Amino acid sequence: MEPRFTDVERAALRVGLLRRGRELATRLADIMAGKDGDAIVRALALAAKPGARPAEIVRFALEQVEERRRWLDAGDDRYGRCDACGVDLGALALGQMPWADRCQAHPPGAYRP
Is the entire prediction scored with pTM above 0.90? Predict the structure, then answer.
């Protein structure tokens, strides 16, 4: 079976995931230091279940990015597929948002079980 991503694509996706992870970790540190967590969550456009605290929301997003990086590094076929239906998100979409986890039929704001 042929790999879904070339080595060049995989490297670019990994860099994108690492950048997003660094951004989320920095924002989590900001929240822990007392900055306005609600404003940070809004600026990051993160979706979450109602009542979740900002630190929980950002921590969950960071865990999701790290999980996707591990999948990409391991060649796990789950990377780059919709969490809800398994459809391939495509290299073009992932190039723009390497941490994407949903297809257009299952919007990112939909709460994950």
Answer: no
